[in-house]
Amino acid sequence: KQEVTQIPAALSVPEGENLVLNCSFTDSAIYNLQWFRQDPGKGLTSLLLIQSSQREQTSGRLNASLDKSSGRSTLYIAASQPGDSATYLCAVPNSGGSNYKLTFGKGTLLTVNP
Amino acid sequence: EPEVTQTPSHQVTQMGQEVILRCVPISNHLYFYWYRQILGQKVEFLVSFYNNEISEKSEIFDDQFSVERPDGSNFTLKIRSTKLEDSAMYFCASRRGDRGHGYTFGSGTRLTVV
Known about the structure:
The complex is a heterodimer.
Chain A: E1 4-7, E2 10-14, E3 19-25, E4 32-38, E5 44-51, E6 56-59, E7 62-67, E8 72-77, E9 86-93, E10 102-104, E11 108-113
Chain B: E1 5-7, E2 10-13, E3 19-24, E4 31-37, E5 43-50, E6 53-57, E7 65-68, E8 75-79, E9 88-95, E10 103-105, E11 109-113
């Protein structure tokens, strides 16, 4: 059974700092990994989808890396801003079948202080 | 950008009452899902739906739950007799079908059972 762990559970940084969020998963037979952002009481906004064949994926100030063999992904946020404050979730689909149901980590709560 | 739309955003119901949560997935997507998130816990899979039938369901998705796609655009989750422990944020999601594309989630319905 896939287990997804995110470290740290919470992170507080001053504005402008670069930061790294970590995600690890137990079953490395994944097709892709998706990073989401969740604002308090709100839905899940997809940030990046990184395929199993890729090492990195970039969108603006965000960069996700994937090391499938070691079961790890990182989300790098450059020049953080107060508007980046949110919970960041990583999720991987199950490898069997075609349903691709996602297993989520518990998330990292990021606070960027002005 | 296409969105998954969920209504209502918040529903309060009395224990034992039936509720229907509604979703309009993205029109050219083939796979539809319901997930839920109890306050402070991980997002967890409930059910997947493909080709007008349930393709997979979790242990949580017991006989009190049902899903329907009545008219080719709406996708509903019904809880027949709500319990206090059904209080959660319920997310609808859809996926195009090929591995190169990830999930799109709706903004969620917060269900409060009193």
